[in-house]
Amino acid sequence: MSGDAPLSAAEKTLSVLEALADHSRIADIADASGLPKPTVHRILQTLVRRGFARADGQGGYLGGARILSLAGRFLQRLDVAEHVHPVLRDLQGRTGWTVHLALLSGDEAVYVAKLEGVRPYHLASRVGMSLRLHCTSIGKAILAAMPDDEVRALVRRTGLPARTERTITDEGTLLGALADVRKRGYAEDHEENETGVRAVGAAVFDHSGEVIGGVSTAALVDLAETPGDLPELVVRAAADVSRALGAY
């Protein structure tokens, strides 16, 4: 196709998606994609409706949860992240618990890998499923890697809905819990997201030191023995995953 040939609707949409990875303002997305602002705005509205983008509340746009949801499903099928899976398999083997890797997507995270534990039960989590940050071990590990003002802004956007009777629903209590996570280096979920399930999680970082997700181990409260070095194993695995994904 010649350089003067008009772009198809699919090409325009893909250009906006690619620009959205680096820009949030419509003017910047228009410059990066080479498309008129009205066209960019129309495409973004469609992406928002389909969950591939979301408004940031300040006149800009961010990637939506469905991007990572699809990416997670492709990772499961294509095993693109096989360089991370040995770390997750080692953690599963050392703990016997179900192991998760989730990546941050806007104001939530999305599971991109799951290895079942050795016990004869399966947790409800699945690759492609999104998870709240305030009530999960991965989520709290991610939040603890953010400044408190960013956490407050996120809470204003999302609220702190109760998932169980143990869920933290007060901002001050959450900030106190995150301070403890920073001191320990890992987060815990004591039936805060799902009754009967406990988990330990630690944050994953990219090459720039930005938090991008987390690793967790999870098990049923009544059926799993807790290895004495469980937190250390999770923290070590998260650090290994960070290095595999480009962190120094």
Automatic annotation (TrEMBL):
Any one GO biological process: negative regulation of DNA-templated transcription
Cited SMART domains: HTH_ICLR
Keyword vocabulary terms for this entry: DNA-binding, Transcription, Transcription regulation
Stored Gene3D superfamilies: 3.30.450.40, Winged helix-like DNA-binding domain superfamily/Winged helix DNA-binding domain
Annotated InterPro entries: GAF-like_dom_sf, HTH_MetabolicPath_Reg, Tscrpt_reg_IclR_C, Tscrpt_reg_IclR_N, WH-like_DNA-bd_sf, WH_DNA-bd_sf
One of the record's GO molecular function terms: DNA binding
Domain IclR-ED residue range list: 66-247
SUPFAM superfamilies per the UniProt record, alphabetical: GAF domain-like, Winged helix' DNA-binding domain
Residue ranges annotated for the HTH iclR-type domain, each copy included: 7-65
Source organism per UniProt: Saccharothrix ecbatanensis
Top-rank taxon, per record: Bacteria
Record protein name field: DNA-binding IclR family transcriptional regulator
